[in-house]
Write a structure and sequence with these properties.
Number of helices: 3
Oligomer: single chain
Helix content: under 10%
CATH architecture: Roll
Number of domains: 1
Largest sheet: 9 strands, antiparallel
Strand content: 15-25%
CATH topology: 3-methyladenine DNA Glycosylase, Chain A
Shape: globular
Distance between the termini: 47 Å
CATH superfamily: Methylpurine-DNA glycosylase (MPG)
Amino acid sequence: MGEVPGVAKAHVGGQLPLSFFDRDPREVAPDLLGAILVSTAGGAVAGGIIVETEAYLGAHDPGSHAATHGMTPRNAVMYGPPGTVYVYFTYGNHYMLNLICGPEGEAGGVLIRALEPTIGLDTLRSRRAGRPDRELANGPGKLAAALGIDLTHNRTTLGEGDLVVYDSAVPSDPVVETSGRVGLSAGHELELRYFVADSSHVSRGRTGPPRTGRARRATHAREGAHDETR
DNA sequence: GACGTGATTGTA
DNA sequence: ACAATCACGTCC
């Protein structure tokens, strides 16, 4: 469905069954690396290869939205059936895409953190105008923006709405590296982040911010260009 | 390195 | 009702 002329989809295999997600998030998260996430939001096909994920568990995971306080209106979706899409809004700006894992009634999910863009590049580029290709989706907020994901996708099911995850047609056997999860005040010490070791499309390496290496050489050579106030 | 931005949540 | 928090991105 939704063929896109000119787009190489040769690497896309079959759709992952929902049973794929009926496991512990710590198993699903690394297994998703190399799979292909496709969005048809807004009527345009866009997607790429998943290169970075994080696992979130239930009540005993201090970094999870399901931690300690039980079910709330927001996190109730985390207790839903495997393959459910959980999108939430944070920092006043950003949407985060998660895929719910484990049996219904048990909270757990995987945050999709970064993508290597391969499908609908023109769409991805227009949604992330001005950024180089490696920064189209190298972070969870950027990824959601690039794929046109928002709260309308929350509580939908993979394969039934705008979002689908496909297996890779080519046997990709990426070298998986782990690290602590990013951006958490609690639970960041748990090594539940998984990423493709040699990918240049991840949000960061094992330590430290992205090695895009451009912030570093921002010498203030161009002082005179005073700008509109800010 | 510092802010914006607004929903969600626990607390008063 | 209120204030803290936040699974981030951008520009300085």
